[in-house]
Amino acid sequence: MRRSDLPAGFVLGTATAAYQIEGATQEDGRGASIWDAFARVPGAIADGTTGEPADDHYHRMPEDVALIADLGFDAYRFSIAWPRIQADGTGPANPAGIDFYRRLAESLLERGVTPWATLYHWDLPQALEERGGWLERDAASRFADYAAQVTDQLGDVITDWITLNEPWCSSFLGYASGVHAPGRNTGARSAQAAHHLLLGHGLGLEAIRATQPEARVGTTLNLYSVRPASDSEADRDAARRIDGLSNRFFLDPVLRGTYPEDVLDDLGQASWFAEHAPSDDLRRISAPIDFLGINYYSRHTVAAGAESDAVDGPPSAYPGSEDVRFVRTGAPVTEMGWEIHPDGMVDVLRQANELAPGLPLYITENGAAYADQVDAAGEIADPERTAYLQTHVEACRSAVDSGLPLAGYFIWSLMDNFEWAWGYSRRFGIVHVDYETQRRTVKHSGRWVTDLLRGEGAAEAAAQLREG
Ligand code: FCB
């Protein structure tokens, strides 16, 4: 696999998110987010940690930008922490917050790396959660106001914007299963949070278009390749439900301006949506975007029948479809237990393209967690991660070859970081972080990436240069 196997102009980047890397959660006027509050709840995070200090990126930003540039990336996708801009989710933008992201974007541009900013990667200001969070329609207007201020003040240095990251996670992990912040168990009402998130996207999009007409704006969905465990009618219905809740419930409103009726029925939410999700909302949610971001990690194989250990676990993230099991196929999995299935990436790209033919698509996240070991020489050999990335970059090539409008691919993640409910116990980076010293070390997978980006031998040459 060589870079030249991909079309000219194909964007190769890497991604992170604010709460996962920044730390400095109480500095320069940053307010609390739902993740600050949630991480303090005993038992919420597997290793009992929080996003403080994470990778201390807030203080080490120049070093991290140099690393991104040295690795050879074209683009860097980061997220803006809403509570750094508006401590309580309202009012004028905090100059110190704006200044941090301005310095980040400028440093990237100086090094020839294009900044891609996500406006909402899960860190809702806690003050807004106390007013009902995403279950309240008002959250969507608050988000649009925040988006307008950010793009107004940073539009001269950032052109590529992503409104939301993975609204499925924000709504169903945040408000149904409660394994993510804000940790609520509201069952099928979580679908209302999803509508308000999507409305936030629509209103935000409108606000960004008004403040920065030349911006390129999209949104990012997490999509899964879904298939039934057998050809039985019951298993096929299970696959319809999971594809419905994970994929179609977000793709359809954004790309077609409708909610899938079968999914509203599964959720028992048809009447709430009829009343509270008028066609005007859907018109905004489906207003033209410049690209769709897709985060792809894995395939789901599903069967009818509840999980046998469901009694002890958290409530289902699929309200109304509790009677579905996720089946292990025996295919290799990453340390997250996520099945490795590169062809599934092509499936989800095709699914999106069928709804909006020709709309530019970007894989805005793809990557793998493995239990890395630092060897005696200080090296991190991670051949499984390299293989994962390589096979998925190859899937990008197949997608392009088959005519899909895939325009870029971002690796999750630049460096090991706070992996939400897993804390620091799961490492996704192509750069290793020693949390005691904050030392960054490029893993072998990172060197593979540099060789892909710049050609064979580039990683070694770059390392030698750095050592003088
Ligand atoms: C995605 C998130 C990202 C990261 C990866 C592993 O769902 O967007 O922040 O945690 O999973």
Notes on the protein architecture:
- This protein is α/β, with parallel strands linked by helices.
- The chain has a single domain, classed as Glycosidases (TIM Barrel).
- Helix content is 42%, strand content 15%.
- The protein contains 17 helices and 13 strands.
- The chain has helices at residues 18-21, 34-39, 57-71, 82-85, 95-110, 126-129, 138-154, 167-175, 190-211, 233-256, 261-267, 270-276, 279-285, 343-355, 383-401, 444-454, 458-467, and strands at 11-15, 75-79, 114-120, 160-165, 216-222, 225-228, 291-295, 299-304, 324-326, 361-365, 406-412, 431-434, 439-442.
- Strands 1-2-3-4-5-7-10-11 form an eight-stranded parallel beta barrel, surrounded by six helices. Strands 6-8-9 form a three-stranded mixed beta sheet.
- α3 (57-71) packs parallel to α5 (95-110) and α8 packs antiparallel against α9 (190-211).
- It is globular.
- The chain starts with 10 loop residues before the first strand and ends with a helix.
- The model has no long low-confidence stretch (mean pLDDT 97).
- Bound molecules: beta-D-fucopyranose.
- Beta-D-fucopyranose (FCB) is lined by residues 17, 20, 165-166, 169, 222, 295, 365, 412, 419-420, 428.
- Its EC number is 3.2.1.21.
- It is an enzyme of class 3 (hydrolase).
Topology, number of strands:
13
Q: How is the largest sheet built, in terms of strand order?
A: 1-2-3-4-5-7-10-11
How many angstroms separate the termini? Answer: 30 Å
CATH homologous superfamily identity: Glycosidases
Q: Provide the β-strand percentage band.
A: 5-15%
| Rg computed from alpha carbons, rounded to a whole number of angstroms | 21 Å
Sheet bearing the most strands, described?
8 strands, parallel, barrel
Q: What is the annotated CATH architecture? A: Alpha-Beta Barrel
Catalogue the unreliable spans. Answer: none
CATH names the topology as TIM Barrel
The backbone outline, from C-alpha atoms, is: globular
Catalytic activity: Hydrolysis of terminal, non-reducing beta-D-glucosyl residues with release of beta-D-glucose
Enzyme class: hydrolase
Family: Belongs to the glycosyl hydrolase 1 family.
EC number: 3.2.1.21
